[in-house]
Structure formats: C-alpha cells, structure tokens
Amino acid sequence: MIGADETVLYVGKAKNLKRRVSSYFQRTQLSPRIAIMVGQVERVDTTATRSEAEALILENNLIKSLGPKYNILFRDDKSYPYIALSGGDFPQIYYHRGGFRKGVRYFGPFPNSWAVRESLHLMQKIFRLRTCEDTTFANRSRPCLLHQIQRCTGPCVGLIDKEAYAADVQLASLFLNGRHGDVVDDLSRRMQAASDALAFEKAVVYRDQIRNLQAVLHKQFVESAKDEDVDVLAAVEQGGAVCVNLAMIRGGRHLGDRPLFPSNAQGCTPLDALVAFVEQHYLEQPLPGKILVNLEPGAVREALEALVEGKAPVMAARYENERAWMGMAENNASLALLAREQTSSRGEQRLEALRDALGLAETPGRIECFDISHTMGEATVASCVVWDDKAMKKSEYRRYNIAGITEGDDYAAMRQALTRRYEKVAAGEGVRPDLILIDGGKGQMGVAREVLAELGLDIMMFGVAKGESRKPGLEELVFPDGREPVHMRPDAPALHLIQEIRDEAHRFAITGHRARRAKARNTSRLEDIAGVGPTRRRKLLAAFGGMEGVRNATVEDLCRVEGINRHLAEQIYNALR
Predict the structure, then answer these.
(1) With the CA atoms of 34, 39, 42 and 48 taken in that order, what torsion angle do they form, in degrees rounded to the nearest 10?
(2) Residue of 419 and 485 predicted with greater confidence
C-alpha cells in the first residue's frame, strides 16, 4: 500500500487478494492504527507468486528492505549466537554470531551470549576441546595455561592423538545435541575400561568428567525428563505495550529467555504480535521439536505452516513442566515490560527536567553529543552518540577519523567532525537533531556555532565544560549566545541525563581512538622494515595471530612464513626487539 510521495505504508500477502484488500475499505470496525493507514493509501501495488510460502518470503524481504510504517516489526540489534565446531583433525570450539560457513558445525541458536559462554565453559571443563584460533594453534611450541588448569588436552603440541581427540569431539557434539544420557553412558564405559586395565589415573579423569556433567545437569531449576528441544513463546500486553518473550529449551535444559518488543505496533493485539514474530523468526531459524504458545495455537500454527509448507508443532502448554516454562516466560515478559516502562518514564522525566532547565519551548526528542579523543595529537577520533526515544541509540552512533589538521588541535577536530555530520543535514539527507551537546567549553562552542552558521542550520546546542577538579556534578553548561554559564545541582535529573550522554560520547570516542592508535603503532613497526610490503605484512600478521605473535616469534619461526627468507627474518626479528 503506497501513500503520498511514493511512501510505502504497508506490505502484506493474501491468498484471496480481492477479499483481503476489500476488507480494509469495507469494514467499519477497523482499529485506530489501521484506520489512519487506510486514510493515507493512494494506491495498491501487487506482485503474484507461485505459492503462499513464496509470498511469505517476499513479504518478509520487502518489510526488511522498505521498513513500512504500519507493519509490525521485530528487529534484533544482533543475530542469535551459536556454538561452532570447526573442521580439521583437531576442531576448535568457539562462540559464533553471523553467517554460516561450509565445513563448520553449528549448535543453537542460544537466546543470549551468556548462555553460549556458559556452555563453552562447560565444554572446556568436561571435554577439554581447544578454543584457540588456528594461527595460534599452528604456532604453539608448548602447552598454554588452559592445558595446565585442565581445560584443554593440548593437541597443539601432540599431547593427544587424532583418534582420542575425535572421540572427545563426538561426545561434545552429542551433549550439544541434547543427548546427555549417551554422553554419561560413554564416559562411564571409558571409566570402567580404564579401571579394568588398572589405568586408575585415567579412570579418575573420566570420573571427574561425569561428576562435572551431572552437577550441571542437576543444576537446572526447571528441566524436562526428556532430551527435547522446545521454544516457549509468551505474548503479554501491559499499558498498551506488547512483549513477546522467547524461552529456549534445548536437550531438556532451560537456556534462558529473550524479551522482544515489536516496532510499528501501536494498537496491535498480543496475538498479532505473536503471529508476526513467528513469521519473521522462523523464516531464518530452524524449527524446534515443539513450540509452546500462550495464545490461540491454531492461529499461530496456521501462520507457521504457510511458512514451512508442512506441519508445524505449535501447541498450548499441557504438562506440568510445560506449564512451568510458560509461567516463567509470561512472568519474564511482564517484568521486561515493567522495566521498559520504568526506563521510559525515567527518560521522560529527565527530558522534561532538561527542557525546564534550559527554558526550551518543546521537549527535545533527539539529542546528539560530540567528543574528541587523542594522545598528544596522535590518532585523533571524534565521536557522535545519539539519544532518541528516551534511550541511547547505539545503531546510530558514528566515529570520525580526523585527518589533515595540526596535531592536538581540538578546535579543528571538532570543526571537521561537525561539518562532516551536518553538511548532510543541510543537504536534506541526514536526520536533524533537536539538540546538540558539545563536550567542551567556550572554544568548542565557538567552533560549533561557526559551523552551523556556515551550513545555514539553526539547532539548539550547548557545551558541557568540566568544572574545577573535573569532578562529576561540578559541570557547567556553556551557551553559544554568550550568556552566563549555568551550574546545576549535583542531584538534578537534567544533569544526570547530560552526564550519561556526555560519558557515552567520551567512552565511544576513546574506544575508537585506542583501536586506531594500536593499529597505527602495530602496523608502522612492520612498515618501517625494508622489504616488508603489504603482502608480507599481511602474511606475517595472519601466521602469528597479530603483532604480538610476530614480536614473540624467533628467526626460525619467521622463516616458516611464505616469502620470508632468513636474512629478512633476522631484519624483522632485530627491528622488533
């Protein structure tokens, strides 16, 4: 559905197009949200597909690319994390987030990074698989600390053969697939065999592995007697807001919850949100053995079966453990809504306090803050952080690598950052803020005023100057029109908001500066060596896992790298000492 100026208002699918589209214009009981949308529609564009599944995929792709105003959206800042097992003779087990690669086995998804790291810690403790990168693994000459604390079997230096390591990998795979009983049985058989062969030290190792595994399996608060994979979905509404809470059960173990909040969902029902989540989530994630929902399983099942073109295991909670999972999921959804409401309310109060303190006509919606970071003029980086919709918007943060200025000239750095950010706004391309904060005093404010004047922009702004002794609470607000600086009470909500945004700008700037400085220093050490060009530099860093590895390498180690002869290896070795 297309509105004025070719704006896409809504993307939908229909088996019977006439009936679906007509329903929007013939029904009198439309929700307020849909009624507003219908009043803006100027035309309807259609695309025919061969099947309902194709229509669903196309709908999802268009929603993601066009971002229609009236579609319910579930946007996660990050993809779901997985545990990955690489290929080769001695596979590496590691945390993974992102696209899948051929030849790597992935286990998951997990609801959050904590669940992955907890499982990885368990893998190291019980199965002792390596977690180091391939470059580090290939260049070890002695076991690392993980081997010494019994968290790795030391395949890098041949302390375990390929067959024995493969058996450990197989056990870890069984465990990650939820077959805990098979793992315990296998370890028990190994322990008994070692005991029968009078290899008591080895038997003790297996015994400790079984104890560690049993301790973890018995630690769960709610656990299924079956090794089953279940997704528990609870949609809850409170105060006009909706949350869909996803709880993941893998191998009968409750791995944690993930509350999700839909966008563009004003006036939508919990069932609408639940169906929208199912259609978007399972388009990219594999179906578990069972999906438990707290609302109308039939409607959710119908939506999911259109996606998978087959039977969908959607049902209501029936048994005691399922009802316990569902109760936890609903409670977590309610708690997430309450926390979100409190955060929003707190943000509103502080914004209103800031409006009153500055004497603004309206409460600012979008605030942008700038800071500069460098070390004696080296690797200067400017940051721009964004506060919008009563919270920090990390996806809209920006860093600017400053170049072409006198080293240490903070005013020139600020001028460059502000120009690069707001020349797009002046051209009508970027998002215009309601308020600009500058981390600095009168000098920085003078530069900011000049930049906005040159660009023809009139945006409210002020500087945050550190007070005497640079202690929090002693800041003063500096204005571009030359009026007297303003001091706020240390406990003023408006000052707390300013401090939060300013501190975030400082953190973001200094993190970028340190990364840029480290990269420049590490790279320049190799660049200064005659005969080491970009290709050899890249090979050296890849072979040793970074500059630290190159610095610790011997001449013989360096000679093993393609393109490095002994003479050049000695030059590199001496230059890095």
Answers:
(1) 20
(2) 419
* pLDDT at residue number 415: 94
The distance of Cα 114 from the centroid of its chain, to the nearest Å, equals 12
Q: 497, 392 in Cβ contact below 8 A?
A: no
Q: DSSP string of 125-154?
A: HHT----S-HHHHHT-SS--HHHHTTS---
Amino acid at 577: R
Task: Name the β-bridge partners of 314.
Answer: 291
Residue appearing with tokens 């599944």:
53
The strands making up 82-85's β-sheet, listed across from edge to edge, are 93-96, 82-85, 105-107
Give the separation between CA 290 and CA 292, rounded to whole angstroms.
7
**Torsion angle, alpha carbons of 556, 558, 562, 566, to 10:** -60
Report the SS3 class of residue 521.
helix
**380 close to 406: Cβ distance less than 8 angstroms:** no
**Top-confidence range, 175-184, 214-223, 349-358:** 349-358
Q: State the DSSP H helix or E strand holding residue 166, giving kind and residue range, or none if neither.
A: helix 162-176
- Is 426 within 8 Å of 457 (Cβ atoms)? yes
Q: At what angle do helices 297-308 and 270-281 cross, to 10 degrees?
A: 20
Quickly tell me which residue has 């919270």 as its tokens. 391
Query: How far, in Å, CA of 172 to CA of 492, rounded?
Result: 54
* 221 pLDDT above the threshold of 50: no
Q: Contact, 203 vs 191, CB < 8 A?
A: yes
Interval 227-252: pLDDT, tens: 678 899 999 998 888 999 998 887 77
Query: Whose structure tokens read 């530069």?
Result: 447
Q: How many CB atoms are located within 10 Å of the residue 186 CB?
A: 17
First to last CA, the chain: 67
Closest by alpha carbon to 97, among 541, 473, 522, 108?
A: 108
Q: How far, in Å, CA of 549 to CA of 396, rounded?
A: 35
Query: Cα torsion for 157, 163, 164, 168, to the nearest 10°?
Result: 110
DSSP state of 384: E
Tell me the one-letter amino acid at 91: P
| The pLDDT of residue 450 is above 90 | yes
What's the CA gap between 51 and 29, in Å, rounded? 30
The tokens for 492 are 């003023």
CA pair distance 384, 452, nearest whole angstrom: 16
Helix (H) / strand (E) element for 373: namely strand 366-375
Q: At what angle do helices 113-126 and 200-217 cross, to 10 degrees?
A: 160
Spatial distance between the Cα atoms of 291 and 26, rounded to a whole number of angstroms: 36
Measured distance CA(470)–CA(323) in Å, rounded: 55
Helical segments of 320-386, H only: 320-358
Query: By C-alpha distance, which of 526, 554, 577 is closest to 139?
Result: 554
Cα separation of 551 and 26, whole Å? 74
Kindly give, in sequence order, each residue whose CB lies less than 8 Å from that of residue 228, ignoring residues fewer than 6 positions away: 178, 249, 251, 252, 289, 290
* CA separation for the pair 143, 96 (Å, rounded): 25
Give per-residue burial for 427-442: e unless 16+ CB within 10 Å, then b.
eeeeeebbbbbbbbee
